[in-house]
Amino acid sequence: MLFLSAVPTDSRKLERLVGEIAFQLERRILFHVFPGQARLYGFTVLNIHEKIIQVSRHPLTGKVDEAYRYQLSQRHMELMNKLHALGYSATLHGPFAEYIVNTYGILKQRPDPYSAEELGYNNPEFLRNVIIKIAPSKLLKDMLCLFSCLCFMARQDGKPLFLW
């Protein structure tokens, strides 16, 4: 594809792109489970159960909204069941995604809207090739699993792969 030639090819930026894929999946999962949360600071896939408890408790009275807690838990369980069908395991891939983000980093700045760079970042074929090029063989299978889950979630919600 012609526009992919405008996507940067320096190895550090491509490494950050691998980290961004893991980060974007984490965000996508969190936004799915907590659709009403404006900010997700401190929320991770690893602490999602504690955050469900936290956000379903009234901050002043401490009273638990059991219906809301149940709704969030159901959203989480249903999503994990769908992702599990793609090979995702929360106990493995939650820490793995965190490791990938910490190892490779994330993109330092968003690409310009409608630029070739942004189009490349939302092109599954391009991103899969970046993963294959950058990820060491021992991480490749799990990185491709994260990527498959991100692609699945983007198809489900009809949004681009990367949400800026």
Automatic annotation (TrEMBL):
One GO cellular component, as annotated: centrosome
Xref: InterPro entries: SPATC1, Speriolin_C
Protein name: Speriolin C-terminal domain-containing protein
Boundaries of every Speriolin C-terminal domain copy: 17-164
